[in-house]
Predict the 3D structure of the following.
Amino acid sequence: MEGTVVAVVLVAVLVLLVLRSGMRVVNQVERGVVFRWGKALPQHRQPGITFLIPFADRMRKVNVQVVTMPVPTQEGITKDNVSVKVDAVVYFRVTDPVRASIEVQDYIFAVGQVAQSSLRSIIGKSDLDDLLSDRERLHEGLALMIDSPAAGWGVHIDRVEIKDVQLPESLKRSMSRQAEAERERRARVITADGEFQAARQLANASRIMSDTPEAMQLRLLQTVVEVAAEKNSTLVMPFPVELLRYFDRAARQFGPEGGLENGHAEHRRDDPADGRKDGAEDGRKDGAEDGRKDGAEDTGT
């Protein structure tokens, strides 16, 4: 009886050991691929506790998290014959653990090699301006080139990004000079446009001031106020514009072009007494001249 109990206990312990040896735990970020007698089962094991047949099953765990893999710097010549060095980064994850375990020996190494060759290929097909400014389109094309073979391995390429583009020092200096010249051109164009607009506004202002002379006087007074606000200089008032115009009119009136007659007429209009005196003197002069002329004619007769 005691021998039977011992045998039962031994069998139970052996069963527990066998079950314990066949029990596995799959983490949340992993999937289990089971190989039974060397053949992969079509369904992978989900996270949690799973049991394997001792001595028959062997399980391989595959990480399904997104893998961030930097692509080493690749040197190449662009489409416009510029030597550059480009490095990138690839984001991918496993979507089919069974195929990732069977179709390729090391899917991480395989994706890395495809990424390097695709990066060199995209460098040769692109211009330098595209590498520097149109990277989004290059990212999409590079991701498509890497995803084509990776899809057969159960791997999905989430995103590919070009991190840096290294240019030769001579090319950097040339691009700097080009950018400086371009900015200088824009500055000159903006300055010329400002001068043009200022000249046009000044021309409009001059036409308005010519139509209304009082505007010139008001502008003069405003300038005087602005200068006097500083209180650090001596202000000399210019000659009034209206007084200059008065002298100009006076010069035209009393000029050598018959201005004397105009002056007599204005003088007679201004002073009646002076007009009478001038008339009497002119009458005496005319009578004397007429008398001399008549006497000369009688003598000749």
Observations:
- The longest helix spans residues 169-211.
